[in-house]
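Risk register update: the risk of archive-format incompatibility is retired. Evidence:
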Amino acid sequence: MSQKRTLQVQGHTVFLLEGGDGPPLLYLHGLADVHGAVADSLPFHEALAASFALSVPAHPGCAASDGIAEVDGVEDLVFHYLDLLDSLGLERVNLVGACLGGWIAAELAVRHPQRLHRLVLIDAPGLHVPGAPIADIFMLSQRSDWGKQIGLRQLLFADPESALALSMFPDGRYASIPDELLRYQSLTLAARVGWTPPYLYDRKLRPRLRRITVPTLIIWGREDRFVPLAHAHAYHEGIQGSELSVLDTAGHSPWLEAPDATARRVTEFLRKP
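Archived output:
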């Protein structure tokens, strides 16, 4: 990504990564993006920036973005990103959301589909699916007595002992202070919108999915142990005409675990006439 900057949006600071040329694309990051999406670019971003004018904002309270005190629920984040689009002068964009960012993207799409060209949801929470509960990331984000992060890595990656998983969520009593702060910030935001019941979903979202009228692609890791694959099928069934793409070797974080394959599917979909 070629540029980092901050932008004032309704009296609050938003940290942005930006790069690339082409149609505008807004990417909303997830909980596993604590390093790249809110601090430095990731291979997934670089692949998207090859075809689009990509903007990657840090959510309120993450990295150098502020405004978390005003966030009491996911709808506050929807209005925040509508204000950001206005500040960027973007009337309509392609919108890609991963994990928590996918939930925000879905909520925005049911309310304001006229602001979107196309929508991509990647391993997004937000729905209640009987028999397929979303796992408790707050409990499993705590280190064991031996400083292990195995529980969190199992939720976020198909292979919790992979080099990628260990590099992003290393064992040991403490990681670097900047990395610990990024992780704390992202989990704090998740708690603002999903700690109290209902846990990480909106009871009203599933029946409202019919209001999403833009072309939509749903990408999911088959081995997702955080937001089970049944949620992908629920989004697919609820969004008329949507496409579903399942990545067999990925867990909750295909944009990190399989960035080339994920970016290729996103790019092919967004380029459709």
